[in-house]
Amino acid sequence: MDIAKPSSVPAPEPDGGEMEGLVWGYRFSESGAAELLHGPALREALEKQDVWLWLNFDLGEAGVEAAIASLPHLPPGAVAMLLSKDERQHISSFGPMIGGVIADYESGQSPDVRRIVRWNFVMAPHLFISARRQPGHTLRQLNQDLQTGRLFPDVPRLFDALIHEFTSATSYILNDLTNSLDEMEEHLLDQQELGFESLGLVRRRLVRLHRQAVPLRAVLVHMLNDPPNWFDRRAIEDCQRVADRMDSLADDLESLQERAHALQDELKAREAEKTNKRLTVLSVVSALLLPPTFITGLFGMNVPGLPFQTGPHGFWFACGLMAASVAGMLVVLRRVRMI
Questions:
Q1: Among positive and negative, which fits the CA dihedral 246, 252, 258, 260?
Q2: Of 163, 162, 160, 146, whose CA–CA distance to 32 is shortest?
Q3: Is residue 172 part of a domain?
Q4: Which of 84, 122, 154, 231 could make a disulfide contact with 235, Cβ separation 3.0–4.6 Å?
Q5: What is the residue-averaged pLDDT of the chain?
Q6: 139 shares a domain with 164
Q7: What counts of helices (H) and strands (E) characterise the chain?
């Protein structure tokens, strides 16, 4: 879901009931409508598997490890994936289930590339489990969408929506960075001062985005190349659309990085030009002062026989000689086109 501007007020997260560490548990009807479940009703739905469920856990809560390990129909590998502290984005298979680690932005007023978090997931035909240690923007936004009546008929559509939400938040950041680069280019074209610090900040944010976008694209490619057997054609097509959007986002990111690099090269060239101009001025001044310095040094020698010592106008003759030497040096500098 594309966003024009992220929500500034987080929605309250439903109480998970008796299951330790559970932030929310949803049961979905055939039409995709979500219903909150608690306690025994949730455990009964987990056992029956007649509808599909979404469980979201807070890994910072006490007793959450035991609660996840006690969930029915979860192989040990899936449990380990949900409890993993691995920060690397990746995906793995556990029989009919697949799971992995996905990046997200820390929940707040707006997505911020400086505050990246991770959430783990495992999904099967009738179950989607997410687990996080810090509240994230993507999970929170999908929770808000469910509360306003958004429909998810199956598990793959929920996963695709989560990835779409992350790409939408990333696009929001990219638009902001694009505007910043546009302003910097305008400043350079208008011959205004532009420091390396502001450009460096944009480049750092682009690098951080690139570190998240490329591994996520690899996760989606892996899922397309080796989809679970319960993915139908529609699920694969939806996943392909998400992957295509991620590819487009990665291309835009690389294009912005190239623009930022070109802008830095232009800024370096401008700074080098200013430095060269200053050095030219210093060189000209030094060249102009060289003959008078030689003359004053010559007349400052304490030896007999120096000219103009006995006449009343010796000082003025020496000053005239220095002025003539400066004029001569100016002629020489113009001949060699230094000024």
A1: negative
A2: 146
A3: yes
A4: 231
A5: 84
A6: no
A7: 8, 7
Q: What's the predicted TM-score (pTM) here? A: 0.75
State pLDDT tens for residues 121-178. 999 999 999 999 999 999 999 999 999 999 999 999 999 999 999 999 999 999 989 8
Tokens (6 digits) for 55? 């469980």
CA distance linking residue 147 with residue 331, whole number of Å: 83
Q: How far apart are CA 286 and CA 339, in angstroms?
A: 13
- Which domain, by its residues, includes 75? 10-150
Q: Which amino acid is at 28?
A: F
22 and 143 inside one domain: yes
Q: What does the alpha-carbon distance between residue 338 and residue 283 come to, in Å, rounded to a whole number?
A: 9
Domain count of the fold of the chain = 2
Q: Are residues 127 and 181 in the same domain?
A: no
**Stronger pLDDT, 6 or 18, i.e. the higher one:** 18
DSSP output for 162-230: HHHHHHHHHHHHHHHHHHHHHHHHHHHHTT----HHHHHHHHHHHHHHHHHHHHHHHHHHHHHHS--TT
Answer whether 196's CB lies under 8 Å from 267's CB: yes
pLDDT > 70 fraction of the chain, expressed in percent and rounded: 92
Amino acid letter at 25? G
Query: Is 213 a member of any domain?
Result: yes
Residue-wise pLDDT tens digits, 291-304 = 888 878 777 777 77
Q: Which of 216-225, 230-239, 318-327 bottoms out in mean pLDDT, i.e. has the lowest?
A: 318-327
The pLDDT of 310-314, averaged and rounded, is 75
d(CA 51, CA 44): 11
